[in-house]
C-alpha cells in the first residue's frame, strides 16, 4: 500500500499557505484501484491540491531538474513524485515507472501540458495543448480496471511572484529549451481555488485490442481530445 505521507504533507502545506480549496464532483474519484489523473498545470501547488481534494496519495511525474537539486529532490521524493529522465531515455523510463505503479493499483498523476505553463504566465481559465504520452500509457500498460480521470484546477484568487531567473534552471538541466530564454520563473500561489473532477474514462480490454496500427492513433487522439475538452469545459465553469 502507498504511504499516506504525501497526502499529509499536502494538507499541511495548503493549511500553512492559507489556500482555500473547494472540490466539485469528488464522488467521481474511485476510492480504490489504479487511476491515471490528468490535469492542467500552472503552480507548484497543483500536486498537493489534487491529493488533498481527491483524498488519495498520488504519484506524480515531475520535471527532470527536480531530481537533480539535493533539497528539491528530497521534497519531491517525500511528496511521492518521480522525476522524468533525460530526453533520450525519457519515454521508456516514464512508461516503465508509471506502468509499474499502476500495476500496483496506485494513482499516477500527469500534467500533459508539459513545463510551458509553469514557466510562462498564463490565465487561470486557459489550458494549453496536450502531449499524448498519457493516452499511450493508458492504452498500452497491462493494467486491469484502469480509470483515466480528467481534473480541472480553476484558480479563483491567486498571487503571482517572480521566483528565480529561468536561465538558472538551464545550469541544472540544459536539455530543456524553455530554460534558455530570458525572464523569471513565475510562482503561482493559490488563495482560493476550485477543483472540478471530470467524468472518468474506463480503459476496456477492447481498447487495448484495437491499440495497433491506424486504430491505435485514432484511439490515442480520441482519449487525448476527450480529456482536453473535459478539462477545458470544467475550467470555464470553475473560473466564474
From TrEMBL:
The keyword Transferase applies. One of its GO terms (molecular function) is 1-acylglycerol-3-phosphate O-acyltransferase activity. InterPro entries: Plipid/glycerol_acylTrfase. It comes from the Bacteria. Residues 35-156 form the Phospholipid/glycerol acyltransferase domain. Keywords: Acyltransferase, Transferase. SMART domains: PlsC. GO terms for biological process: phosphatidic acid biosynthetic process. CDD domains: LPLAT_AGPAT-like. This is 1-acyl-sn-glycerol-3-phosphate acyltransferase. It comes from Stenomitos frigidus ULC18.
